[in-house]
Amino acid sequence: MLVHPEDMLPGLWLGPLVSLCHDHAVLMTDRTQWDDQSTLGRGAFCFMVESTRRQTAMPLHQPPAHADIRADRLVLLRLLDFPAWPDAGTGQRERIDTLMKGHTGGGDSQSQVMLVRFSVLGCYVLDNDPSSTHPAGTPRFSGEPGHLLHADRYGVFAPTARMQDLLINGTVTPEQRIRFGLLRHDESLVYRHNGVTSCLSMLDIRGRRTAMFGKTRLGKSNVVKLLVQGMLDVTAEHRDVGQLIFDVNGEYANSNPQDGADNIGSVYADRCTLYYLSEGKAAGPNGKLLRFNFHERPEEAMNTLRELLPADLAESDYVRPLLSCRLPALGFNAEELPEMALRRLRKLMVFWTVLHHAGFEHDETRLAALLHSHGYSQPFNPGFSQPLRLSAYQAVNGCSAPALPRSFADMVAEISLMLRFSLSYPNDPTLRKQGSFLFDADEEIMARFIYPQEGAGPYVLRPAVPFHSPRVDNFITEVLATIDQGDTVIVDLGSANERIIRYFAKTLSVAVFLHQERKFVRNEMAGRYVQIYFEEAHMIFPPNAGNVIDVYSRFAKEGAKFNIGIVYSTQSPSTINHDLLAQTENFFIGHLSSQQEAAMLSTVQYAFRGLEEDLMRTRTPGFMRALTASHRYPIPVQANRYDGRTLLMG
Asked: Which of 92, 174, 630, 645 is most deeply packed, by most CB within 10 A?
C-alpha cells in the first residue's frame, strides 16, 4: 500500500477540500491544527487521499479511517499560498458555510478555519500490471492525476518522514544512488528536525546533459564535486565511466582552505590525473604539465597558434599568412622516394626555424631520437646540394660552406641562411631543380615571416610560448587513454584567460567526441561512458549562433548516442547555447535574481513553471531545486557539503 495507517495519524490531518480541479486544490483546515504544522512552508509537499465512502464531506477535525480511503493511490500537492476568504454570496463562500454548519453547527467560520491553496503535481499509484518490467507493488507516478471525483471525497495530510521519502525519492532510479542532501522547502532551519535524505542516482547523470544555474558562491561547484565523487564511487569496481573536468577556478585540482576539504584529485589520487599550466604544480605524483609540443605535432601547430594568439594578432596582415601554411605530420613512409621524404622533413625544419627565432625552446636529444625512429639517418641535415651551399654561404656570409649540419643549432643556422639567400637572390640557378623553385609557397611565407620587410618579426608569437614544451607527449592521446581506463582527468585552468580556456576545452571536447564516434562506428562502445564537466560554461560555450554546428551542439544532439554526458554550470540560462539547453535532462537550480532568467528556465523546462518566485527569493548557499531524468517534479534540497567522504547509499 502507498498510504499506511501511520501516515494518517490525527496530528497529520489537515482537513477536507473546498474546491478541486486538475491544477489546484483549496483546503479548509482548522486554525489550531494548522498552527502545529511548523514544517509546512511555501512549496512544502502534502498528499491528498480519496475516500471510498460516498459521504457528504470528509470531517474537519478528525481524519477518516484508514479502511475508508484508497491506500493504493494518492495525489501529490505543493503548498502555494493562503487565498483570501471568499466574499459572501459567492458559490465558494456558500460551500464553505455549508461545510462549517455540517462540522460545527454554525458560527463565525473565519475565526475557526482558514484556507490553504495547493498546486496538484500528479498522482502516485501502485503498479500491479503483470506485464510491467517493475516489481509488483512498485509506486508509479503520473504527472496527470487522472479522473477526479467531487471535492467532498478528498482530504489532505501532512507527510510523515516515510511519506516524504516516497515523495522525493519514489521516482528516483534505485540503482547507484548517492545521498545528495536533505529535503528543504524553504530557507528556515526546520528541515533539520526530520532530516529526510534526498537521493540521486548516478545512472541519471551518466551519459546525459546536466545543467547547474545560480549566482556565484551559492553552491554550484559543490554540487559538481558531489557528482564527480559519486561517479567515482559507483564505478570503483567496474570503471565504466571516465571523467574529464575543466577546472576553470582550480577547485578540483587544488585544496582550498575556504572549503575545508581535500580536493577531488587528492582524495582519489589513484584514479585522477591532473594537468597543470603551472610547472610548479605539475610536480606532484599524479600531476602533468599541460603543454603543446609544436616541434612534434606540426600538422596541428598552425591551428593551435591561431587559438592561442590574441585574435587581433592572429588576423593581422603579418601573422595571418603564416597561420595559413599547411605542414605535414612528422613521419616517414618507407614506400615513398627518399627525396620526397627529405622534402617533407626540410619543410618541417623551416617551421622549426620559425619557432627558434620566435623563442620556442627545443629538446635536441629527444627530437633526434624521434627522427631516428622514423628512419632519418641524418636528422638535422636539410640535404641542400653542395653547389647551392657554396653559392649561398659565399653570397650571404662571404665564406665557404661549412661541414654538413649535425645539430639542431647547425640546422637552424643553415636553414636561416638559405631562406635569406632565397629572398635576396631568387633568380640564382642553384635555387632551382628541374625548373622548380627549391622552396614551396608555404616555405616562402615562413621565410618572409622570419625576415620581414615590415612587421615586428617572429617574436610576435611569444604569447604562445608559455603553452609549449619540447618534452611532452601528445596530451590529447594521454587524456583519451586515461578516460578509457575509467579514470578522471582534471585540467587545471585556474590561471588561464578565457581565450586559453576555450582553446583547451574545445580541443579536448572535439577529441573526445571523435574518439567516441569512432568507437560507435566500430561497435566498440562496450557500455563505457565519458562524463565531461564544464565550470563557468559561459566562458566555454559560444552564444547562440543560428545554424552553426560546433562540438557543443553535437554533444547536445548526438552525445547520448556516443555515451557522452556533460555537466555544465553557470549563472544564467540565457548565456548557454540554446541547442544544448533544450536537450538538457538534469537541472540543479540555485538563486536566480532576474525574472527574465527565471522565465527562460521555465520555458525550457516546464517542471519549473510556478517556481519562479521561489528561485528569485531564496539565496542560501547549497539550497537547490533538483530535477533529474527520473524525477518528475523539482525537489527542494539542501545539498550536502563536499568533504571527501563517500556518499554511497549503504
From this structure: 630
